[in-house]
Amino acid sequence: MSTITPPPGWGAAPQPTPEGAAAWNASQSDVWVYAGFWWRVWAFLLDGVILSMVEGILSLFFGPKINVEWEELPIPDGSGQTVDVVNIATTPLPHAHPVSILIPHLHSGSDWHTFGVLLSLLPMLYFVLFEASSFRATPGKRLCRLEVVTLTGGQISHLRALIRFVAKALLFFPPLLLIVAFTRRKQALHDMIAGTLVLRHTKPSQIIPFPPHD
């Protein structure tokens, strides 16, 4: 009859080592804890707030100047007369003459297209550069203690981070995100395509063995 040996801390005797418990703890390998659905959601929301703040600051300092020009169009009443804003304010109603409609036109200048392209590239640079760096995560993921790694636990390359971002951008559909809750390693579709994992942490508290009670 086979017996099941419980893990350390659950009634099993620790493995004897010459150096004692300290050496036993040092020999333990890292334990991977995969990030679940809600941890990913909170990290995504935090990254969205950070990106919005950065885009707002960049718009204040580097955004194109927006000018407002008003076009005055007469109300078609047969008279063809128009009245400007000053005359409207000084003319007693309801005996006012036919008034005109003021239509605003916004002009952002010729540099708006360049700034728009830069803003559209900002999320890609944000995710790719942070996830492929030694941080292994965006600031939002770091606040949630998440890391993006390869299938073997290594740091991902810029190309892999770019593939992951493009796949996530193309496949971003809220119901598809639920697949994280049903895959064995909590992978989303973009993780499967890019060959990445999102870990909650890799070094939890070490399990300290102790002798069973008599």
Automatic annotation (TrEMBL):
It is a multi-pass membrane protein. Keywords: Cell membrane, Membrane, Transmembrane, Transmembrane helix. It holds the Pfam family RDD. It is found in: Cell membrane. One of its GO terms (cellular component) is plasma membrane. The keyword Ligase does not apply. The chain crosses the membrane at residues 37-62, 112-130, 161-182. InterPro entries: Pra-immunoreactive, RDD. The keyword Lyase does not apply. Residues 34-195 form the RDD domain. This is RDD family protein. It comes from Acetobacter syzygii.
